Structure formats: C-alpha cells, structure tokens
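Honest question from a wet-lab person: if I give you the sequences of every part of a complex, can you actually get the arrangement of the whole thing, not just the pieces? Trying it with mine:
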Amino acid sequence: MASIGGLLVARLFDAIVPLFMKTAIDSLADPDIEPTLLVPVLSILGIVATRFLIYVFSQRALRRLSISVSYDLRKRLFNHVQFQGAHFFNRFGTGDLMSRAVNDVSMVRMVVSFGAVTILTTVFTLITGLYFMIMLSPSLTFWVVLPLPLVGVAGFGMARALFPYYMDRQEAMAEVTAFTQENLNGIRTVQAMAQEEKEIDRFRDVSTHYAQTVYRVNRYQALMNVVMGFISTASTVIVIFYGGALVLRGEITLGTFMAFFSYLMMVAWPVRMIGMSITMFTAAAAGTERIFEILDYEPEVDDASTKTVTTELRGRIEFRNLVYSHPGAPRPTIDGATFNIEPGETIAFMGRVGSGKSTLLNAIVRLVDTPAGMVFLDGHDIHDFPLHQLRGAVTLVPQDPFLFSMTLRDNLTYDDLSRGDELIWEAAEAAAFADPLRRQLAEGLDTMVGERGVTLSGGQKQRATLTRGMVRDAKVLLLDDCFSSVDTETEERILRGLRRMRGGKTTMLISHRVSTARHADRIFVIDGGRFKESGTHQELIARGGYYADLAAVQSNQDEDRERKARLLRDLDSEISAEPMPEAAKL
Amino acid sequence: MSENAIQAPGPSRNYSAFDAELTHQALNVRLFVRLLGWLKPYLITLFVSIAFVVMAALSQVLMPILTSVVIIDTILVPTTIASDAPDYGLLALVDWIQSTYALEALSAAGLVYVTVLVGQSLLSFAHQLTLYSCSLKALRDLRIDLFAALERKPASFFDHVGVGRVMTRVTNDVENLFQLLTGFGGLAGEFVPFFVALFAMLAISGSLTGVVLVALPVAAIATIAFRIAMRKIFRFIRDSVSALNQYMQEDLVGIDVVQLSGREKQNIEEYGTHNRANRGYEFRAINFEVLYDTFNMSLGSVVTGGIVWFGGGQVIQQDISLGSMILFTSLVQMMIMPIVSLGQQFNVLFRSMASGERIFQALDWDEQLHEPDEPTVMEGRLRGKVEFRHAHFGYYQGEEILKDVSFSIEPGEKLAIVGPTGSGKSTIIRLLVRFYDIDDNMVFVDDVDVNKIHSRDLRERVGVVLQDFHIFSGTVCDNITLNNPDITRERAEWAARSVNADGFIQELADGYDTQLAERGQNLSQGQRQLLAFARVLAADPEILVLDEATANIDTSTELVVQDAVAKLTEGRTSIVVAHRLQTIQECDRILVLHHGVVEELGTHDELIAKGGIYYTLHELQFQDADVAREVAREDEGSEGRTTDPRWVSTPEDPSDTPDRM
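Yes, you can. This is the full assembly:
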C-alpha cells in the first residue's frame, strides 16, 4: 500500500515539473520579469532526486509482490495436483496443466505487476494532469480535452479487435509446432514411404500461413498506432491553434502554452493505456479462472490419514460385489466382482483389452476410487487406510513403464532413497534387469536416464520398472501386464525370480500369455467386467472354455479350426470395441 | 557412391557438438551476413523500407523545430536575436502558405504542423509494413529450408539427436531471428533522428550541445553496466524456469508412479526448491531493473534542468533565442532513447545470435545419405529378388551388428527372420531400404546394388511396416494415403478392407473421416497395426518388409492381424521380422540370426529336424512349459543363465530402442 502511495506521490511530482519549466520560460520570455533560473532548476533537480528514491522503493516492492504471487500460484498448483486422482488427469491433460502453470500464471503476474498498478497510477496521473491544466487555463483545457474520450474509446475498440488476430497467430504457430514435431517424430515413416518432398510442400503451406497471420497482427498494430496517433494529435493541434491565439492575445503566457504540451502528454497517454488495460484484464481474468479451476478441484481420493491400521498386514485381498463405472462409460467396467485372495497366493487375470483387468488392480491401490465397503485388505476397508500405508503395503507396477530423468538408482528406489544397493541388485536379479545393468549400461546404477542420459529400450524400461516394484518387497504385488516387451526366455527368468522373491506374499498379475498365467495358483478370466472362468490351469483347460481356447491357439498344437473360428467370431466386436477409457490404462 | 560411403555414418561424428553450448559470440558478423542472404529476394522491399524510415525520422525532427523556431520564435514571441537554428525551409513554407491563402501566421504554421505529423505517421506505417513483409518472407523461406534439410537427414542423424531439440530450431530459433530483424529495423528508426537532432543542436549552440552530450556516455555506461549485471541473472532465470517446468512436466507424466511410491511430499519439497531458486533470481533481477528504469527516467529530467540553467543563461545573454532553448529540451529525449533501445536490443541480439548459430549448424550438418550420381532407373515392376552378399554393418565404428550376412530371397518368397533381441534383425531391414549408408555391393534388389538406386525410388518399391505405427494427426483416410495425391480415397478404402481394418474404421464416429490424434490414443494397438498394413498396401510396393510389433495384443486380435499379414504378403516378396511363431509358420523359409551371424536358414520342418536354435526357441515359446521348465531347471545350476548361452541376449543392440525405427 505504501508503495502504491509512493508511486502516486512520484506522479504528483512529475506533474509539478512543467510548472517550474513554466516559471523559467515565462521569466525569460517576458522582459518585465526578472529572469529566475536558480529556483526552477534546483526544484526540478530536487524533485528528480526525491522521485528517484520513492520510485525505486515502491516499484521494487510492487514487482517483488508480483513475483511472489506467481511463486505462490505455481506452488499451490503443483501441490494441489500431486493429490489428484484419475478423473482429474482425464479431464486435464499434461499439456493443459503445463500451459496453465506457465502461461496463465505469467499472465496473472503481468496483471499484478503491470495492470492493476498501471490503471491506478494512470487514473491518478490523468486527474493531476487535468487539475493543473484547469488551474492554468480552464478554457484551453476544455478544448484540449475534447478529443480525449475518443482516444479512449478507439483504444479500447481497437485493442479488442486485435484479439482475434492474436488468436489466429497463436493457432498458426501451434500448427507450425505440431506439424514439425509430428513430422520429425514420424520421420522414419515419412522416409520409408518416400514422402519427404510432399511433406516439405505441406510445410511450405503451413509456414506461409503462419507468416501471413504474423503480418496481419503487425499490420493491425501499426494501423492502430497511426489511428491513435491521429486522434491524439487533434489535441496537440488545438493547443497550437487555440493556445497560440491565446498567447498572441496575451491571455496566457508562453510558459503556460509550453506547460500544456507537457500536460497533454501526461493526460493522453493514460487515456490510451486505459483502453488497452481493459483488454488485458479480460485476458487475464480468463487466465485466473483457468488457474482456479484447478485449485478448486477437490481431490477425489480423500485420504483417511487420521486412522492407521496398526496390526501387521498379511496381504489378504477381498472384493465384495464391486460394481464400478468409469465416468461417461455406457456400461460398468467392473460388474459385480466378488473374490478372496489369501496371503501368499499368486493370481493371474486374463481377458481382452478393455475387459476391466487393469481397473481391478487400480482399485486396490485407489488409483481408481471405488465406493467404500467393497474392497478390503486384511479385512479392513481400503478406505480406512491412510493412502501412504495402503500404497506402501500394496505395490502396483503399471502397464506403461515410466522412468524419471534421474539416475537408475534413484529411479529404482524412488519411494525410499535410503535403500542399499544390495536390495536393488537382488530385485534387479529377480526382474532380469541385473544383466542389462551390468553389461549394457556402462555406469550401472549411476546411469542417467532420459533426455540428457541414456534412452533405454522398451524391454529395459519394463524390467527397470519391475525392479522398482520388486525392491519394495510389499505384502501385495500387482503386475499390470509387465512382460509384454520382453522375450519369452526373459519372461521365464522373471517368473522364476518372482517365485524366489514372492514366497509367502500375495502377487496378482495380468497377462495375455497362457505360458505366464499357467504358473499362477488361480486364474481369473474376465470379460466385459464379469468373471467368466476361474480356477487352476488344469481346471480351466479341462473346462474347455475361453482359457482352453486361448491355450490351444497360443500353443498352436490344435488343428481344430472350430476353436479358432469361435475366437474369430467376436473379432469385429473385439477390434471395434470401445476404445479403452483413459483411466483404465493407469 | 564412392569411397566416402565406406565411412560408417555415425562413428566419426561428435553428436554432442550438435547440442553443445554455442560460442555465445555477441556479434557474429559472418552469421549476420549469412542471414541477410535470405533477404536477397526481398532486397527491394528492404530498401524501400529503409527509405521510408529515413523520411519518417526527418519529419519527426521537423515537428519540434516547427514548434520552437517557427511558432515560438517567429510568431508568439518574435525574437530579435538572429537565430542560428536551422528551419529546413519551414519558415519560408509557412510564409508562402500565409501569403497564398491569406491566413494568419499561426494558422499557416498549424497547418504545416498537421501535414508533417500525418506524413510522419503514414511514413512510419509504410516503413513497418515493408519491414515486416520482407523479414517475414525471408524467415519463412529460412524455416522451410531448415525443415527440408532436416526432413532429408538420414536415420543415423535422428538416432543421435533428439527430435525435441531439433524442433525448437524450426520454431523458437527462427522466431528469435524475426525479433532480431524487426528490432534492428526499428533501431534504424531511432538512430536516424538521433543524428539529425545532433546536427540541429550543433547548428544552434555548441556549448549547449555539450551539456546534452555529457549525458550520453552516462546513459551508455549505465546501460552497459546494467546489461553486464543482468546477463548472468537472465541466464539463471532462464535455466531455473526451464528446470521448474521440466520438473513439473515429468512429475505430471509420471504422476501414477509418484502417487504409488508415496513421493508426493518429497516432490513438493523438490519442486519448492526449484521454485524458490527461481524467485530468488527474479528478486535479484528486479533490483537492477528498477534501478535502471528509474535512472533512465531521471536522466532526461536532469538534462532538462541543465538545459534550463545553461540555456537560460544564454537566452539572457541573448546568445540564443528562447525557442532554441525549448527546442533543446524537446530534442533531449531523441538523444537518450536510442541508447536505451540499443541496450534493449542487446538482449535480442544475444539470443538471436545463439539462435542463428543453432539454425545454421542444423543447415550445415552435412550428414547425408549418399545418392548415386547416375541412379539406375528400374523399369516396370520389380521381380522382387532380394539378396545380401557378405554384408557387414555397425552403427558405430568398431561395432559389428551384422557379420558377413548372406542370403537371397526369390521373387514371391516369404522369409521370416527370427533371433533374440539385439541380433540385428531390424538392422537388415534398415539396410534394405537404405536408412543408413552402406558399402557397395552388399545388398541387391533384382540383382542391382541398392546403392545405385535413388533412395526415394527404392523406398517406393520396398514397403516397410515399422514396429511402431506413427499416426499423423488428420483423418483415418489421410493416415492411409499419407497425403499422397496418387492414392485415391477408393484405393485407401480398398486397402483398409483388404487388411480387415474396414470393420473398426466404419464404427468410428466419422468413419474414414474420423480425426486421429498424434499419440493415437483413440486407437488400440491392434487397430493401429491394421492401419499400418492398410497404409503400406495402398502404396502397393513390390517388396514388403514387416517388422512385427512385439506389443501386447490379445490373442483374438492377433488372429485378425495374422489374417491381414497373410493377405498383405500374398504374391509379394516379403521379409517378416517375426516375434510370433504363428507368423513364422506362414513363411516359406526361416532365417535365424544371432549376434549378427546367419546361424540357420531353411524351412520350418528342416530347422525343427535340425534341432538347433530354432528348435529350442520353438519349444520355449510354444510347447507347454515342460520343455521350458526343463530348460529352466538346467539353468538354475548355472546361476540364472539359460540353457543355450547363445540365447543370452547381450549386448542389447541400441538399434532396438523404439525411437530408432
């Protein structure tokens, strides 16, 4: 507040300077007056010095404020986002969130530092300027001020009309970026299909279009300057014609005449700014709204952190008639799941894409938030656990292998950096990641991953994330199709590793391969959110259902065309099945 | 194709140079001159623009002269002092108007004033339009040239240089150059008045000009000092902002892992550290900024005070007229502004010099596929014979991915290539379509060395289905035709029907006109693969190469895919890098590759009978785990190694990273 006051005082000083100039000029122009130079000059210097100090301190304080605002907004956004669930991330993509954290925050910052204060000071400047003008010559002021409202209206109107041009330019730029990115990402395809020259031609169009939009924005801005210049000039011309006549008639002095020039600058500029500022405010209001849209979003998974289940967990999982629908999905993803998994059991889930397997696993760690009273760990509703306890006891290895750009060691012990290398190596051995670690990644655990480091192959990434899951040695381990990118022989090794490390602990895994599932104690076949078959490998083979068909087709020993045909019958519905809802992939 | 083709593509190059920090030379004249090369076609526009800005600048200086010399000294307070102030004929003009149109002197002067002002506005409008026009066109051309250069780079280039980093050169860096061109164009608009004003001042009073000139070095020193102080801070701010954004981006992409690992609190802490660092630098920067801004503001006032003091004295001594003194106060801003603007332009200059360097580096990067001087034109359709003769290849010097690989495929034959990860399967495909430069006389198509065929011609005839199907944003139909005008919509739909893709396409919201996103999240793996088949079938290549996706598709989808593969390969010489044995069995012969060596080659029955690698692989993947278990048990003895040591897939070929192909 003090700093705003300071700025206003500085403006007031600005307004006094022309008065001293007037005194000096008048004393020089009128031979009857004794020339006084010392007082005006010293006063001007004095004002400059005072204003300097005030200005430095208040401007500094205000700009610090705006920096702190953006700091705070970013911090709140980041913190808020950490605790959001699947619905949230379905609604706001990464790109969207990033653009809010970057563009919208800086927009708000601009308004704080520039917009609000500018409007306040411009209005103040306008008022002081007008006051001094009226004091010097009311009649001249009247005529001079006459065109000013026009300047404000035109400024506002033109700034608004500029908006669509800006949008066009932004879109055209986005098009250039998207085209380039997409094209270079798919460069192998383009080259393999010998389409380079055609793509270059298309880029020529995109790039030309962009240049045109930029030209239009600039042309309009230049035009705006000309028009605004013309309108503002009207006042200057009035000063010359009317003011000059007044000087000749001796009604005002030459000093007043000159002072009017200065005040006119002081007054015309704020009028012009106000139009622009209003436009800016509308844009910023939109930005602020976008930020608060995020901040006001209640985390859908509410963390019951007050209670803690103290008993030693054993890893018993129970589903009681779970029915769950992804938002917007026409039918439930899980339609009445009821089962018990005893501590130490290994369970395999099989089924088509979109059948609900991933949703089941996600429900246990509450990545998908199901209603209370349906999923239980060791007899306690999972909603009764604080999230960190639940997720510490149950480890999910998601389908998409994701590594952060940090060292492999940090990646593998992401949840608890204090783990020793021995534990990591043991887990890596079990996940068949020890070999690549030793032989292919020169710096072993210290290898940097990502942009500035090594790019791991799909198989290596998958084994690394598997290691990250195994190293936690949790009571319950959930593997969401974690062997898809490794060859059969590596998979065998991983399964052996699993048996070694997971003795007495619960493991649930999703797989498409019978060769994987057959090792499980029990196998569940899911279709359309319902359990179709369950039992051991032998039982399901004997039953001759879907699982047996899969086993037959996969082992290829069956020449029975009928079985193949039975699977093929659903093919259309299969392939054209609803695309998996985003959340199911989590 | 000559001896320089012998040189392997990757090894001798220092790719880190491509991303390395650039020289940061503030003013690289050579670079600037080179940039002007792109302006050549638009030189006339540029000169017209310069002419406009000079005229606009002159009229800008005329206005204060008109006010002080004509209006004040002549009309309002007629002076007795013989003024030395140049009037550039303005006095005569006003006199002429006054007598011709019988106007009052003041009205005549006002009229001239309005005219000059309108003229000045229009001139600078014209200046801006012409300047934008020529620089935008020049940069558009530069951008297209850059894109074209990248588009034609061989695969080895993109193996090493990330797409993201090359991309910013096409987008941001070119944008920075636009700022440079327009910035300097604008600077011309400020420096012309600077000299005109200086000239006018010297004509009036040398000593008073001296007062103004004292301020200039002060402004210059302040500007330089400010830039030096800010340069480092700016870099800190830039780095901290990018660290901040990168951290957030990664956290968002991996949010599942973050939440599952219970890392939220720690990440908030780490993000907070970046955020605080950024705030600290910003705070430091504004200290200087505010000081500098205020200093500039005050300098003008101080100089004005000086002019009033010294000038006023001279007015009293009747050395100069009152109007001249007032003129001086008006011209002061014209002297100081260019220096301030120049300081601002330095920022742009630094940035754009670095950008220019990056752009030209990408343009100059001479890594190219060597095309034959006189390419062999293959008449008509190929018969479809493919032959490798003692082929050797490595991505890096000293590395051998393929060792003496020889085999041949007869027209119409289907060959499956199998082998563990890193055995060089995909490399064979890449060499066949010349993604990499290879030695002469290693790979032949219809008995012609592929090095003698232009790569474009070769790739039109050899259709490749890559492991990862890249979806371009556009309609389904666009993605099949790849915007190739030779492929009609009917042909695209026929191709889709032929590979079983029609069914799911019809069920999409707008059928063949459904918009697809780049990441293709609206399509499943199986669907994407079928689209890839349709794409290659529509192009109707004479030889088909299929790198089968290892990805997880469920068994029924797989059956559809298998069926499509059968239709695709029908009557075509085909090479399939196979991961699934179903595919293999449809093939005529099987080539087993291991560590870049052809270990076995023959029909399925022959290889099974042989009982070698293929047999082991077949047992592992197909049979009940009885065999597998047996294998495993043997294994346990040898500390986690598999039966056949040859099957330990090491070293993993970097070529198997998904971004290579």
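Two things worth pointing out. The domain at 386-656 of chain B is CATH 3.40.50.300 (Rossmann fold). Chain B touches chain A through 175 residues (CB under 8 Å).
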